Amino acid sequence: MTEQHNAATAPGDSRRRIVEIDFIKAIMILLMIAFHIVFIGDTYPYAKKIVYTFHMPAFLIISGYMLNTGRSVRSYLLTLLWIFIPYTVMESGYTFMASLLPIREHVDNLTVGLLVEKILLHPLGPYWYLHTLMLCGLICFFVFRLPRITLLPRLVILALCYAFLSRCLHVVSLPCAFYFMAGVVLRHSGTPFLSFFRPSLLSAVPFVLIACMPACLDKSTPGGIAMVYLAMSLCLVLFGYCRGTVLRLMLFIGRNTLVLLLFSPVFTVLAKIYQPVLLRVEPTGMLFLAVSLAFAVAGCFFIAAIMDRLGISKCFFGKEQNLK
């Protein structure tokens, strides 16, 4: 969700942003927020299972693709620092609240040691993505700086490192690490992102077929891997139909997914306050979902805008203006 590389070659513009990637990210972050709303996830568990098969793997592929291993060590470490600081603040807050609230990830007997363990090893909530991003990105960056090694041996070393992190240290999910690596492979193969992921309305057919097979709804299965590709293809189909204000809003959301990841848990918890009222009006939860999504997105951007205005973003994100 962070911007480590966002340029592509285009006619007349040698350094342009790949707006299609922003669009995919926007859809995936909105799905993430939607199914972090407890009522929606509990009421529609099968839909949640489908979405969980592809939405974070898509982010990991994009993150691996956007990793620029050609940067200086200092520049890259600074990038990681300005991910680690907001990650640490929000993960600490989430863990603390989990020790107070009767939520699914409730923490008993919160101690300093347990807090450090959650931050460094086993994060709670949606912040696991940033933890995985930092670890996978850091290892990848330095593997690709090893001298006099061709691409294939680098990838073998990278895969072994990720396997060690997962199977020996138990700090990342191996499938998640390999989705990140898939993005790295795509980037270093020289294949443009939009040449590999192509829009096709026909993708809807196998997507629906796989979605009807519960055994395939796992990101580590062949069916799950196919679903990730098909979902990204369908996102590109939607991109082709989006116009005007809707498109501008989606691209703005896609450029600022880090803000939404960091702050959205605050608003998904607050949604419980007005949940009973909206469910009495419309019991399926669709109105509640629409209101909660709008509330979360607007709330996150409001916090980020206030931080920009007060100069807090400089200390929190390392930027004067975080909203792009």
Walk me through the structure.
The structure is a single chain. This protein has 324 residues and is mainly α. It has one domain. It contains 15 helices and two strands. It has helices spanning 19-36, 38-43, 45-66, 73-100, 112-120, 128-143, 151-168, 174-188, 193-196, 204-211, 222-241, 244-255, 257-281, 286-310, 313-316; strands at 7-10, 13-17. The longest helix has 28 residues, at 73-100. 37% of the residues are buried. This is Acyltransferase family protein. The chain crosses the membrane at residues 23-44, 50-68, 80-101, 127-144, 156-180, 224-241, 253-274, 286-307. It comes from Xylanibacter caecicola.
Give a topology summary.
Elements: E1 7-10, E2 13-17, H1 19-36, H2 38-43, H3 45-66, H4 73-100, H5 112-120, H6 128-143, H7 151-168, H8 174-188, H9 193-196, H10 204-211, H11 222-241, H12 244-255, H13 257-281, H14 286-310, H15 313-316
Helix pairs in contact: 1-3, 1-11, 1-12, 1-13, 3-8, 3-11, 4-6, 6-7, 6-8, 7-8, 10-11, 13-14
